[in-house]
Design a protein that fits this description.
This protein has about 325 residues and is an alpha/beta fold. The chain is about 25% helix and about 25% strand. Strand 11, helix 6 and strand 12 form a beta-alpha-beta unit. The mean pLDDT is about 95. Bound molecules: NADPH dihydro-nicotinamide-adenine-dinucleotide phosphate.
Length: about 325
């Protein structure tokens, strides 16, 4: 089987030296285990954080070990009473073409509600992040204005649609004209702003948010967030989901201090990880699946093909080369 290991801890943007491809034997399952063939591998921005050795909410990746992350695989041999050949499962065993899993390491997914890949996206981790970050922290009310950065990505595209379901006015910020068109024409955001081509994001926000900003769902941090924070209303809520603009920085990210703004506006800024809401996942999953089936939620995936393209796909996240969830298809079911 093929595996991708963390060869060295990146400084700045990861490159080919960060990763090492190796081949090794496929282990045979013992009692209580299943042999899995990888179908889809998820690449996610948080993985960049695990490549360095600093304390966080998940342990850093170990050097010369497989890069762990979300995977969908098919059971090709089962020595477990809970799984049969052909079952499709989700697990966190990472960048490898086969894996022998203990039955407790993976969970069977429903193949019938939507394509299996959605369990890594809108029906999985990124969908749940959008759902809980927006509804538990952002708490948008009807008629309020919600601004989302990283709006055309896996999390952002779902946040905007849920905010529309809740009756908010929704403004997305993203990095290409194709993304802007996707947000306004297909996802029916009220406005979308291309931060890469605008001459003044602040002025565009003034125009797009005549009543100010009540909820700012922040996926990116940096200068985009500085511009949005200048527009927040009294009692604004600001879920801090991600700060991708800083993940590859070598030094600290510097910018305006936020305390005065938050005090003047009695605003709430709260960081979170999706795992904070683990005991509510069943509720979130049911709502997301229901909205998807009712056509109230749409999704797009950017799917790269081939195991050897996983590192490039991961790096694409930082270049903005994806609309919706970025996945790598490793094998056909
Ligand atoms: P996306 O699908 O949104 O992909 C990343 C996107 O980020 C790119 O497409 C790009 O879009 C944008 N981007 C990349 N670099 C920059 C930059 N320097 N400045 C501004 N935008 C940039 O990824 P996800 O939806 O999976 O994740 C979105 C955010 O949410 C990330 O910050 C991630 O770490 C965070 N996250 C947090 C979780 C939590 O539990 N708190 C869980 C999951 C994700 P563009 O073309 O618009 O620049």
């Amino acid at each position: 089987k093929k595996q991708i290991l963390l060869a060295e801890r990146p400084i700045g943007t990861p490159d080919n030296n960060t990763f090492q491809f190796v081949e090794t034997g496929i282990g045979q399952p013992e009692n209580g285990e299943v042999l899995l063939r990888t179908l889809y591998v998820s690449v996610d921005p948080y993985m960049r954080g695990r490549m360095i050795d600093t304390p966080s909410y998940v342990a850093p990746y170990e050097l010369n070990k497989v890069i762990e992350g979300g995977v969908i695989g098919e059971v090709i041999e089962s020595k477990s009473d809970h799984f049969t050949q052909g079952d499709v499962v989700i697990g966190g065993y990472g960048w490898q073409t086969y894996y022998t899993a203990k039955e407790t390491e993976v969970r069977k997914i429903d193949k019938d509600i939507a394509p299996i890949s959605t369990h890594l996206g809108i029906l999985g981790m990124t969908g749940l992040t959008a759902y809980f970050g927006l509804l538990e922290i952002g708490k948008p009310k009807e008629g309020e204005t919600v601004v989302i950065s990283g709006a055309a990505g896996a999390v952002g595209s779902v946040v905007g649609q849920i905010a529309k379901i809740k009756g908010a006015r929704v403004i997305g910020i993203a990095g290409s004209d194709e993304k802007i068109q996707y947000l306004t024409e297909e996802l029916h955001f009220d406005e979308a702003i291309n931060y890469k081509t605008t001459s003044s994001l602040k002025k565009d926000l003034t125009k797009a948010c005549p009543n100010g900003v009540d909820v700012y769902f922040d996926n990116v941090g940096g200068e985009i967030s500085d511009a949005v924070l200048a527009h927040i209303n009294k009692f604004a809520r600001i879920p801090i989901c991600g700060a991708i603009s800083s993940y590859n920085l070598e030094g600290h990210d510097l910018g305006p201090r936020v305390q005065s703004t938050l005090i003047k506006k009695s605003a709430l800024m709260q960081g979170f990880t999706v795992g904070d809401f683990a005991n509510q996942f069943p509720e979130g999953s049911v709502s997301l699946a229901k909205w998807l089936q009712e056509g109230k939620l749409q999704y797009q995936e950017t799917i790269k093909e081939g195991f050897e393209n996983i590192p490039d796909a991961f790096l694409d996240l930082f270049k903005g080369n994806n609309i919706g969830k970025l996945l790598v298809k490793v094998a056909d079911q």
